[in-house]
Write a structure and sequence with these properties.
Shape: elongated
Radius of gyration: 41 Å
Largest sheet: 5 strands, antiparallel
Distance between the termini: 20 Å
Number of domains: 3
Helix content: 40-55%
Number of helices: 10
Number of strands: 27
Strand order of the largest sheet: 20-27-22-23-24
Structural class: alpha+beta
């Protein structure tokens, strides 16, 4: 009996000792991040039959397990990934928003000053200082375009650097996960399947750190290892093997960092479009949806300004009596070829209609028989003419299926724009043509205005417009124009347009000729200043400032959405952490109670052993007598 009692006491003593160890371990790790409270599982030993019933034989330790809920852990991982994503997106989007919307460094003040200078020239077209101010303001505006483009490029370089750093961190965490997987599998094998709790906590912490950088999914294996996947199913960690991601230029642009995954055979696949969530997903998203759009919209504004101003300037006459030339340097579309193209040569991409340009980029791809233009990144086919482009592929030879070129109509336009005239006398403020009414006219019609309309077809040699009352039409150079019932008739000839108001008499004549000596004419200066309110962007729906403000609004909206989402996700993350802590966190009050309970149980078990010893001694004494 004493032997059985001794065994029972010993089992209790050992169980209490294990309980004290587990409790002490919990208390020691109460401040350890990612630690899950451990619990000692106790089981009764198999009882023995003693003829008149079963008698207990003590207690045994069933195991030490984590107090852990996998569903709650998954929620915490998801919340961690989402919170990191929106927080990083908001941080970078806020910088771009502050740059573009800044009342001092933004584009709006430069546009207003430039067109104010154009209006000053219209007010006094003979003033050389006013013309020089216009050129100076044009230089300042071009510099402002270049400054904003460079600042956006700086942000792009920062984002690319952070992408590289984040990928390196992901690779480091992947290696650590693979090592922990190896340790867990070995520990479970040595312990007959008993879980190595601290290693499991370490692995869960690594997975959460990985989720903070990119969205991941996990699959537990029977041997205790955990497989980790990213993107659309690419394996990052399989057992004790980690796959490495690469951050390098993978497309046509050597400055654009993409995410590569080395597949079987050593081929590197670009999985950038599949990488979502976490800091990496935010960096890729802010680059494509904020920086790319902002630079393209800024470039579209620069290109639209240069094209419209040059076109109108070419319809004017400067102080030297010459037809106006280009005022701004006209930006060109950017075309980048893939490094592995089989084709030689490059397509010629020209801006056919700046008013139809969007803020998108395109990819020109050869399908084996023909070249097709597709939007980036959606891949949707698009007609070049519909987006203001003209593409000539005749210079390309030896193309193979899959060859492609990245077409960026406006990406670098803000960097390219510049003023090409420096002589104030070359500002074409006047009209190259003027009109005079015949002194013998008897009707009430007057020439309201005449202006150049087509620089290429413009002919300033004298041309007489005569009214034929019999046919009720104007005649000029063999062409006829019916009298407009509205009261204003527009006669187009030799690249100019003459507006005649009122009803002329038969034989009334108006002569259009070169505006020789017209230094005080402000006709074209007024037209140049009027471009500020002209809608020639986005298919004729937006002005220069309107298009720029639309872009600012879009960036501001994305920034505000990210701010709200960031705050919301931060709260969800805090709730997820609190939920995990309520289940797996160490409660020091509870552990103190357990410490006291196991201490008392240990002392009681020791007393049972002492009683067993006394009984055994009594039995020996009785036998000796």
């Amino acid at each position: 009996m004493s032997s059985g009692l001794l065994g029972i006491g010993t089992s209790g003593l050992l169980a209490s000792q294990r309980g004290l160890s587990v409790t002490g371990h919990n208390i020691s790790n109460s401040a350890t991040e990612g630690y899950s409270r451990q619990r000692l599982d106790l089981n009764t030993r198999t009882p023995q039959f003693a003829g008149n019933g079963y008698f207990g034989t003590g207690v045994e330790v069933g195991g030490v397990n984590r107090v852990f809920d996998q569903f709650v852990e998954n929620q915490l991982r998801t919340a961690t990934s989402s919170s990191a994503q929106y927080s990083a997106f908001h941080d970078y989007a806020k910088r771009v928003d502050s740059l573009l919307a800044n009342p001092d460094s933004g584009l709006a003040p430069g546009l207003q000053s430039f067109f104010a200078a154009a209006q000053d020239v219209a007010t006094d077209p003979t003033s050389l200082p006013a013309r020089q101010v216009l050129i100076s303001e044009a230089d300042s505006l071009s510099d402002r375009f270049g400054f904003l483009h460079q600042r956006l490029d700086d942000q792009r370089a920062l984002v690319n650097g952070q992408i590289q750093t984040t990928v390196d961190e992901i690779n480091g965490l992947s290696k650590a996960l693979a090592e922990v997987n190896r340790g867990i599998v070995g520990a479970m094998g040595r312990a007959g399947g008993a879980p190595p709790n601290d290693l499991l906590d370490q692995r869960d912490k690594l997975v959460r750190e990985l989720a903070e950088r990119v969205n991941v999914s996990t699959v537990a294996q029977d041997d205790g290892s955990l497989n980790v996947f990213v993107g659309n199913g690419q394996s990052l960690v399989v057992g004790s093997t980690a796959s490495m991601l690469t951050a390098a230029p993978l497309g046509e642009d050597p400055t654009q960092i993409g995410i590569g995954y080395a597949s079987t055979g050593g081929n590197v696949a670009d999985i950038s479009r599949f990488m979502t969530g976490g800091r990496l997903g935010a960096l890729l998203d802010v680059r494509s949806s904020v920086l790319d759009v902002a630079q393209n919209a800024l470039g579209r504004t620069a290109l639209g300004l240069a094209e419209a101003f040059n076109e109108q300037h070419a319809l004017g006459q400067d102080l030297l009596g010459n037809v106006g030339g280009d005022f701004f340097r006209l930006p060109e579309a950017e075309v980048l070829a893939r490094s592995d193209n089989s084709a030689a040569g490059q397509p010629v991409v020209t801006i056919a209609d700046p008013g139809q340009l969007t803020t998108e980029d395109y990819r020109l791809r050869f399908d084996g028989s023909d070249w097709e233009l597709r939007r980036v990144p959606s891949g949707q086919p698009v007609d070049p003419e519909a987006v203001g482009l003209a593409i000539d592929t005749d210079a390309i030879t030896g193309a193979a299926a899959g060859d492609s070129f990245l077409v960026r109509p406006t990406r670098t336009a803000a960097q390219q724009i510049g003023t090409v005239i420096s002589d104030a006398r070359q500002v074409a403020a006047g009209s190259p043509v003027r009109v005079s009414a015949d002194s013998e006219n008897t009707g009430v019609a007057v020439a309201r205005s005449v202006q150049a309309e087509n620089a290429e077809a413009l002919d300033t040699s004298p041309a007489t417009v005569t009214f034929n009352a019999g046919s009720s039409q104007f005649e000029v150079g063999g062409e006829v124009v019916p009298l407009d019932p509205s009261g204003v008739t527009e006669v187009r000839h030799n690249g100019w347009t003459l507006a005649i108001q009122g009803t002329p008499a038969d034989g009334d004549r108006f002569t259009v000729s070169a505006n020789t000596g017209g230094v005080g004419d402000n006709t074209n200066a007024l037209a140049l200043a009027g471009l500020q309110d002209a809608r020639f962007l986005a298919g004729g729906t937006a002005t220069l400032e309107g298009g720029y403000n639309t872009m600012i609004g879009e960036v501001g909206t994305r920034t505000r959405q990210a701010e709200v989402a960031s705050a919301s996700q931060a709260r969800l993350l805090e709730e997820a952490r609190n939920q995990r802590d309520s289940i797996s966190g160490v409660n020091l009050d509870e552990e103190a109670a357990n410490l006291l309970r196991y201490q008392q149980a240990y002392q009681a078990a020791a007393q049972v052993i002492a009683v067993s010893s006394t009984l055994f001694d009594t039995l020996l004494g009785a036998v000796r007598r």
